[in-house]
Amino acid sequence: MNSNLHPLQRLLTYGRQYRRQTWQATISSVFNKLCDVAPEILIGIAVDVVVKKQDSFLATLGIRNVEQQLIILTVITVVVWVLESLSQYIYTNLWRNLSQKIQHNLRLDAYGHIQQLELAYFENQSTGNLMAVLGDDINQLERFLDVGANEIIQVVTNAIVIGGVFFVLAPSLAWWSIVPIPIIIIGSIWFQKKLAPYYANVREKVGLLNGRLANNLGGITTIKSFTTESYELDRVRADSEAYRQSNRRAIAVSAAFVPLIRMAVLFSFTMTLLFGGIAAVNGQLGVGTYSILIYLTQRLLWPLTRLGETLDLYQRGMASTNRVMDLLDTPIAIDSGTRSLPHVRGEIELINVTFAYPDRSTVVKELSLKIPAGQTIAIVGATGSGKSTLVKLLLRLYEIQSGEITLDGINIRDLHLVDLRRSIGLVSQDVFLFHGSVRENIAYGTPDATLDEVIAAAKIAEADEFIDLLPAGYDTIVGERGQKLSGGQRQRIAIARAVLKNPPILILDEATSAVDNETEAAIQRSLDKITLDRTTIAIAHRLSTIRNAHRIYVMERGQLVEAGTHDELLAELGIYAGLWNIQQNAKVAV
């Protein structure tokens, strides 16, 4: 979708699938406005009957009896009011359901698109800002569709119908009612252009505020431990004040709209009242016709005073539309391949792979590595050497700049992303648990798993014992990010999750780096069970956990500088041997 288009065009392009319901709602709104205008005309006809009796407009249609004329007007009035009420019910339902449907699908489309974006996108985005787009911006659009769209349609219908009636009944007076309309339209366009940057700024400020709040709530433990509550409150106050001031500037402009329209309405109404009255007194205009013109002048122009609120909804909605559509237009950098992989042996090969994060120096340099199917290899090295980056490249969370990565001889770029990632189980040092039960977190990724299968996976991960001691066992709620559990407990649930997934390839990224020795021993025992006959890549800080690997690689500055078994590397007296001695001496010192 072209980002240079007007936001309304972008919305209409997106909403093509709702064309039928939009037309139904539009027709209902137009019909309702026709019924809404009719009572004023019926009042004028009634006045004409009372004043002219047998010479009235209805009498010219062949209905000479005055009582019959009034009865007919009464029946027509009842029918019109019923139709007006019915059409209002219909258009209200149609517009509200349409707005709900669009906001629901738009939120799902936007969220689905976000999930397909590469990790680099999220590194440059605030979570709070994305939340503002998915939440508040889409809600603003919903509010405009719920109320504003109908208001605009009815105002346009009102102007066309009543303007037409004026030119039919009293062409000489019609101009006094029509003249203010171009002024109001020109004023509306001017206000629209004036308001657009203000509301764009409002949306930006609310995104920053949401970002601050989301960041602080996620880091509440750090805030408390550093006693920075007052400092953070001041920062939230500053962001909230910036949002308030941004809204205040927008309100100052939009609030001036209605008083100016009222002046235009006053001019038109007084001119019709004066010159129409003179024409009626001089016999140039019927009393009934004069009554119709007086009523319709107000009916024509007073709804325009609501344009201020409608314009406000419109501009907020269009500012939000731009933000949502910009998100949907964000290109997906990592495209899925087309080849499926029904059976995975687990042979992985990296051939001259080079990778650098955006605007940073190269992290992996022409690295080549072959991992035979079913073997366990370990990668060690100092922080920043590129170990964890390899995991992200294997999962295609980032795209390599050059080289090739293959799985069972097939370039991973050619594979369906779902097939690729489904074949890999990741146990990371930074375990993420969702707010929900222990069972739900273990079964995450395997939603059809039975309770027996979940328990079996927990036993292999040596998590069953501590889970049984929890207040509700497997139904215990772990809290957001698993904050009710210890680090070791979260780690063992992550291992149970990988066991249940049963992938042909297992990646352990510092899986025991942040736990005590007892927990490490328990985790190590479970890892020994699940790595059998499975391709396993262990990224390790504690060398004792990978000493039995088939092959150990040492990384330094994005390159492999040593390779061999544990004993072979110790014999080389190189980097690995130095790390091993440091860790062994640290254990002795403890």
TrEMBL record:
Listed InterPro entries: AAA+_ATPase, ABC1_TM_dom, ABC1_TM_sf, ABC_transporter-like_ATP-bd, ABC_transporter-like_CS, P-loop_NTPase, Type_1_exporter
Keywords per UniProt: ATP-binding, Membrane, Nucleotide-binding, Transmembrane, Transmembrane helix, Transport
Record's bilayer topology term: Multi-pass membrane protein
Molecular function GO labels: ABC-type oligopeptide transporter activity; ATP binding; ATP hydrolysis activity
Transmembrane helix is among the record's keywords: yes
TM helices/strands, residue ranges: 70-91, 173-191, 250-269
Keyword Nucleotide-binding: yes
Annotated Gene3D superfamilies: ABC transporter type 1, transmembrane domain, P-loop containing nucleotide triphosphate hydrolases
Protein localization: Cell membrane
Domain annotation ABC transmembrane type-1: ranges: 23-316
Pfam families: ABC_membrane (PF00664), ABC_tran (PF00005)
A GO cellular-component term linked to this record: plasma membrane
ABC transporter domain span: 348-582
SUPFAM superfamilies listed in its UniProt record: ABC transporter transmembrane region, P-loop containing nucleoside triphosphate hydrolases
Top-level taxon in the UniProt lineage: Bacteria
Protein name: ABC-type multidrug transport system, ATPase and permease component
Organism (species): Chamaesiphon minutus (strain ATCC 27169 / PCC 6605)
Organism placement in taxonomy: Bacteria, Bacillati, Cyanobacteriota, Cyanophyceae, Gomontiellales
